[in-house]
UniProtKB/TrEMBL annotation, chain A:
Belongs to the nicastrin family. This is Nicalin. It comes from Cryptolaemus montrouzieri. The keyword Glycoprotein applies. The chain crosses the membrane at residues 12-31, 511-532. The keyword Signal applies. Keywords: Endoplasmic reticulum, Glycoprotein, Membrane, Signal, Transmembrane, Transmembrane helix. It is found in: Endoplasmic reticulum membrane. One of its GO terms (cellular component) is endoplasmic reticulum membrane. It is a single-pass membrane protein. InterPro entries: Nicalin, Peptidase_M28.
From TrEMBL, chain B:
It comes from Cryptolaemus montrouzieri. It is found in: Cell membrane; Endoplasmic reticulum membrane. The keyword Cell membrane applies. Belongs to the TMEM147 family. Keywords: Cell membrane, Endoplasmic reticulum, Membrane, Transmembrane, Transmembrane helix. Its main location: membrane. It is a multi-pass membrane protein. This is BOS complex subunit TMEM147. Pfam families: DUF2053. The chain crosses the membrane at residues 100-122, 142-158, 170-193, 199-220. One of its GO terms (cellular component) is plasma membrane. It comes from the Eukaryota.
Length: 552, 227
């Protein structure tokens, strides 16, 4: 029969397994080596409610096919894109039509060009401006993930018309796809939110019966960025905190000796919730002003809020009402200007912005105090509260100018000292008693190396807050911690839990590939079947060999 | 990938075993229980091997090739397999083809079930696609041939009526099959060839051993008159 002829042919010229392996090799010759399952940490976009308005991405888990920016089509795709390639129009499209978005953020954000930073900043603003229903995650760029994203982009080029039909057909069968799986728990409202505000003070000598007024120095400690786990906020408001810590060190030293006691009480206030409409200072003020026994804040000369103080070489004094001649705020302004001229090349400028009572969101922290008719102002190197610099993931320690920060610290410390000891035009800080650069850098290291988003720091017994509290305890007296929690019935703010997760990326094959595999296996097994059926033929062949050997 | 993929792998790995069992005529002899018995002895042998390995080579986590002597000694423990197969052969009555095939197939089936079933169940059903499952399946098919050949060689070695000049060849083949995995792994490592090529290499080497064995067996079988 013809079957036997075919059999003979294979026996004579070609071994059987060539039939199996040759096509198999052709089909599956691995263009790229086998990829195992990959796991990367990813950071979820902001998710919170403020004054009843939802912000950020609402959902967290997905299990979708990875596609690039150019190739995604439907809700079944997760778009994987580099942050600098993603345009605002594309984002608007993705927001409504794609299943999920995974944005790759460069590992070092400080080395980007100015245009790239500008782009990222605007993009952040756009993404944050509206509530998003799809899950949005951020991932740090790494060589391993780079490989995958490149392959996703290449795979996307399958539908390219330049390729031949055979190539397109082949890659539609055997191409590597990637399945992106993120499965955290469903984000739910956190019940244990406690935003701490730390207060400490230095008390002036009250030997005489003269009324002593108080200076309050306020800085908020939290940061804000598109993803909580990526908001390091080295400048906003790391710089303000660092300056405050330096002032604490300087003045606690001065107030320790009775000879150098100033004539003001100084309250240092490290507030929380600065990025969610200054909830920490709001709560603190309510506690102070509504308490029966009154507070020293009533006798305040002025309240200085420190916010973002290393961004530019001009120092702005933001006020809600221009300070009148003769008030202490006004003399502070004049003194600040004089000191800045004397010690540095900084320009000092007053900025007046009325409080917009119609808006729930306050622009600067001093407005919280101004509403309560306390004389207050914010010192900042940012001219307008709308500046994206204060709410960006780009605000990392490496892009902070430490020299400038030291200089501004010196100017503020000198001005304050002049005010407190009522001296002008004389330097109080000198060689013996000076700003300590290493102290500033040490604090920057502590603060700038971990994300300080409000939701991350708002859990109980936070380790970073414990460091702050210890520092206050060490240098100041009467340290207190106030906690702001959302109201049970009518919460002003709500945080949701999942802020980070792990992504699993599986390399997968199209469904058609399995069918082809079945076909190949069927052919292989059929061959095995015939081999076994024809085994006696092999046996006889072996017998012939041995018997012919015996004949000889 | 999916359950379907798992099905593919299972088909690829077990159908050749089934076909061999079915069409080698064993099913007609009712050799099922004999095969199961061979499987039992296989398990016992593996237990003994594991005990020896755990006692004398406690840290066998090093990569292949880093410690050649250690690897060699570890492979030497595989000689226990030969003893186990010898016991299986002695325990099975009958003669010739059916005896050898029963022992070999029983042994190989026990191995393929114990070492591959869980591996595939855990791995091939996952979301991740990996060629290694298909490769392992093909490798198991190769090891079926290898075990039948090894069993035949042991049977030949235990025969006194074999020609004296063939005995060294049979012994050499037996030793080579024991160290085959080690030697091939070394070659793969030093030549840095891919998994598919190493699979091809394994199949070629196994087929060569198999054909030598077949020729020697055929010669003896004719001489003592079993067909």
């Amino acid at each position: 029969m013809w079957m036997e002829e075919v059999d003979e042919f294979f026996k004579g010229y070609m071994p059987y397994y060539v039939l199996i392996f040759l096509p198999l090799f052709i089909i599956i010759s691995p263009i790229n080596p086998i990829q195992a399952s990959h796991e990367f940490p990813i950071y979820r976009m902001q998710h919170f409610d403020l004054h009843g308005i939802p912000h950020g991405s609402r959902s967290a888990s997905f299990n979708l096919e990875a596609r690039s920016l150019t190739n995604w089509k439907s809700l079944r795709h997760c778009v994987v894109a580099r942050i600098k390639d993603l345009t605002i129009d594309q984002f608007r499209d993705i927001r409504v039509k794609a299943g999920a978005l995974l944005i790759i953020v460069p590992d070092d954000l400080s080395v980007l060009s100015k245009e790239e930073k500008q782009h990222i900043s605007i993009l952040e603003n756009t993404i944050m401006s509206q509530e998003v229903s799809i899950p949005i995650y951020f991932i740090r760029d790494s060589p391993e993930f780079s490989e995958i994203s490149t392959e996703i982009a290449e795979h996307s080029a399958v539908n390219d018309l330049k390729k031949s039909a055979a190539e397109a057909l082949f890659s539609s069968i055997a191409a590597n796809g990637y399945q992106v799986v993120v499965s955290p728990s469903t984000p739910s409202i956190r019940k244990d939110v406690k935003i701490a505000t730390i207060q400490g003070q230095l008390v002036a000598n009250s030997l005489k019966d003269k009324k002593i007024s108080t200076i309050a120095i306020v800085a908020h400690y939290d940061s804000f960025g598109i993803a909580p786990e990526l908001s390091f906020g080295a400048d906003s408001n790391g710089s303000g905190m660092v300056i405050m810590f330096e002032l604490i060190r300087l003045f606690s030293e001065l107030y320790e000796d009775s000879k150098t006691h100033g004539k003001y009480n100084i309250i240092f206030l490290l507030t929380g919730g600065g990025k969610i409409n200054y909830m920490g200072s709001k709560k603190w003020l309510e506690d102070q002003l509504d308490s029966l026994d009154g507070s020293i804040i009533h006798e305040s000369a002025y309240i200085i809020c420190l916010d973002t103080l290393a961004h530019s070489d001009s120092l702005y004094m933001h006020v809600s009402k221009p300070p009148k001649e003769g008030t202490s705020s006004h003399s502070f302004y004049k003194e600040l200007k004089a000191v800045a001229d004397r010690l540095s090349n900084l320009t000092v400028e007053g900025v007046h912005k009325k409080i917009n009572l119609a808006d729930d969101i306050l622009a600067w922290e001093h407005e919280r105090f101004s509403i309560r008719r306390l004389p207050s102002f914010t010192l900042s190197t940012v001219k307008t509260y709308r500046d994206n610099h204060r709410n960006s993931i780009l605000d990392v320690k490496n892009s902070l100018n430490v020299d400038r920060l030291v200089q501004i610290t010196r100017v503020i410390a000198e001005t304050l000292a002049n005010q407190i000891y009522n001296i002008s035009n004389k330097a109080i800080l000198g060689k013996v008693f000076d700003i300590d650069r290493s102290h500033i850098e040490a604090w920057l290291d502590i603060i700038g190396n971990q994300p300080r988003s409000t939701q991350i720091l708002s859990n109980k017994d936070n380790y970073l807050l414990k460091i702050f509290r210890d520092y206050f305890d060490k240098h100041l007296i009467d340290t207190k911690v106030f906690y702001a929690s959302p109201d049970k019935r009518d919460p002003e703010f709500n945080f949701y839990d999942v802020t980070k997760s792990t992504v699993n990326i599986y390399s997968v094959k199209p469904a058609v590939f399995d069918l082809f595999l079945t076909l190949a296996i069927a052919v292989y097994i059929t061959t095995i079947y015939f081999l076994i059926q024809k085994f006696p033929a092999f046996y006889n062949l072996a017998c012939c060999l041995t018997s012919s050997a015996k004949m000889r | 990938m999916t359950l379907y993929h798992f099905g593919n792998c299972i088909a690829l790995i077990y159908i050749p075993y089934y076909l061999t069992y079915k069409y080698s005529g064993l099913s007609e002899y009712g050799a099922f229980w004999k095969c199961a018995q061979a499987g039992g002895i296989y398990m016992f042998t593996q237990l003994v091997k594991m005990l020896i390995l755990a006692t004398f080579f406690p840290d066998n986590i090093s990569e292949t090739g880093s410690d050649i002597v250690g690897e060699f000694l570890k492979a030497t423990v595989d000689l226990a397999d030969l003893i186990g197969l010898y016991i299986v052969l002695n325990g099975i009555p009958g003669k010739g083809h059916s005896k050898v095939l029963t022992a070999g197939i029983g042994w190989a089936i026990a191995e393929v079930i114990l070492t591959r079933a869980l591996f595939l169940w855990v791995g091939a059903r996952g979301a991740e696609f990996d060629w290694k499952y298909i490769q392992k399946c093909l490798e198991s098919n190769i090891s079926l041939v290898q075990y039948i050949a090894t069993t035949t060689l042991i049977w030949l070695w235990s025969r006194h009526d074999m020609k004296k000049n063939l005995k060294p060849l049979v012994t050499a083949l037996l030793v080579f099959s024991t160290y085959k995995i080690l030697i091939l792994d070394m070659i793969v490592k030093y030549l840095m060839i891919g998994p598919w090529m190493s699979l091809l290499l394994k199949s070629v080497v196994t087929l060569v051993i198999g054909s030598f064995t077949l020729v020697i067996y055929a010669g003896l079988a004719q001489a003592i008159g079993i067909f």
